[in-house]
Amino acid sequence: MNCEFLRNRLNPTFCEFINTFLLFKTWEAFEICSILFKAKRERFSKVIGRYLKGGSVLAKVLSSAVIGIDAFLVEVEVDITSGLPTFTTVGLPEASVKESKERVKSAINNSGYRFPDDRITVNLAPANIKKEGTGFDLPIALGILAATQIIPQQIVSKYLVLGELSLDGRIKPVKGSLPMALAAKSAGYAGIIVPYDNGREASVVEDITVLPLKTLSQLVSFFRGFAQIKPEKTDISTIFKDSRGFEVDFSEVRGQEHVKRSLEVAAAGGHNLIMIGPPGSGKTMLAKRLPTILPPLTFEEAIETTKIFSVVGILAKDQALITKRPFRSPHHTISDAGLIGGGHIPRPGEVSMAHNGVLFLDELSEFKKHVLEVLRQPLEDTKVTISRAALTITYPSSFMLVAAMNPCPCGYFSDPKHECRCTYPQIRRFRSKISGPLMDRIDIHVEVPAVAYKDLRGEADAESSGEIRARVTAARERQSERFKRTKIYSNAQMISRHIKKHCKIDEASCNILESAIDKLGLSARAYNRILKIARTIADLDGESDISVDHISEAVQYRNLDRGKRFV
Ligand SMILES: Nc1ncnc2c1ncn2[C@@H]1O[C@H](COP(=O)(O)OP(=O)(O)O)[C@@H](O)[C@H]1O
Ligand SMILES: [Mg+2]
After folding, report:
1. Closest Cα to atom 1, ligand 1: which residue?
2. How far is the centre of ligand 1, averaged over its atoms, from the C-alpha of 435 (Å)?
3. Domain-located, residue 89
4. I want to staple 273 with a disulfide (CB 3.0 to 4.6 A). Which of 87, 112, 266, 534 is the partner?
5. What value does the mean pLDDT take over residues 473-488?
6. Ligand 1 centre distance from Cα of residue 285 (Å)
């Protein structure tokens, strides 16, 4: 213990008073000194009393941590006792939280305050849940400053605080500020103090004051009443309005009308789709335009998707909300942990980042087989559960799968203009990389032939994404009405029970289906798929009954089931 301890608590004008007091270190000395220097006795007697008794000073700051995509509250307790200088953090801190003491110490010192040379104990309660990340730096620093009475504890307790500190006292962005702001609101806090770059993201939550800050000293001035901070505000409706435009459009794609139609059907019913065609036929180009014809995100969907982006920490700093459906296109070298999520403390993978949007697997046959296998659970359950020794986390993963691949190793199988040099065993091996169970979950198969020259040259502009989106949205609305009282919301999610109820077909359609299954060699698994797709096509037409036309079109989308032609 030395005079620094006291100096931290006092206005510099009283330093002389303190130095005199420290010469004697007794109550008598304090009395005499306070008379001599006309000091404010009441204000300092408490601190000096504690010092003389060797007691401890406790401060509490509220913060938050994230499990999965939801946040829980964490109470950061800071206890300062006289003794040899130590800094201990308890409450299951991971490495990044343990390292926080070095950042906090430098940040406090470099912001012009004194870091106490005492025994400091930081407890992160609830103490039985592992804490990770750098967001506790700022609450710990504030706890220390409150315990040393540089800032008043009563005001600090009104806010939930998060932020990483750099050594010079700047506040840096953290992951998960949106779920944390939601947690602060439901816990009834007046406000949340966030790093400046996270301000937009946290301000999406209504009825809570979001105070974005750049430096520790700015925050101290605010708590001491010397500075004001402008709360961040976001008008949700304008963000949604501004986000209508897309950089790409379907009208840029020449020809390929049947592929566009299949993408429209897939978008309308939420069906998974695979495109097979030679290189350069426009598969990637078409897939990238799929989000432009999907119905706009609802506010709830936008919040869910934004929460995942916030937890991963990939929201741009000026972005408050993800308002467009995500389009994720992982490279084929991705690992299974990268795809479905993983790590010591499991992080969301690409399937979760594509939540409420599109997961595009380009060059599907290049992906490792075991990586594709792990896709089965998220495709089936629309969520992924990852278990690790530390904890088990579930992330949502409701996405549309779109895949693209060449028909054979050289890429020119069935292309009239190029000769394919692959042997049948080579083609079979190439196709067998994609397992049956994965194929089973893909409703629509479509061949994408090379574009004809006359189509490429065509002057007339093709139909725009907006026009297609209007039809898709109308079809989706019909489905929402149909599945109002169920847990599903799109035709693709129907199980046998729903198919029986909603996909009744007449005699003529039955005959077509029968001959398709018998003559074209369609597999039994194709049967239900065709009915589901036919239901979506009928919805696009605004028809309540499935007709022969709908069934006939649906049969065309089961290319890969046709006998021995593929696989
Ligand atoms: N139907 C099309 N209309 C206009 N441009 C096309 C079309 N198909 C291909 N292209 C052009 O060819 C390029 C390559 O297409 P891409 O989508 O990468 O083919 P793939 O993925 O099938 O190999 C595109 O970027 C685009 O410029
Ligand atoms: Mg491609």
Report:
1. 254
2. 27
3. yes
4. 266
5. 92
6. 5
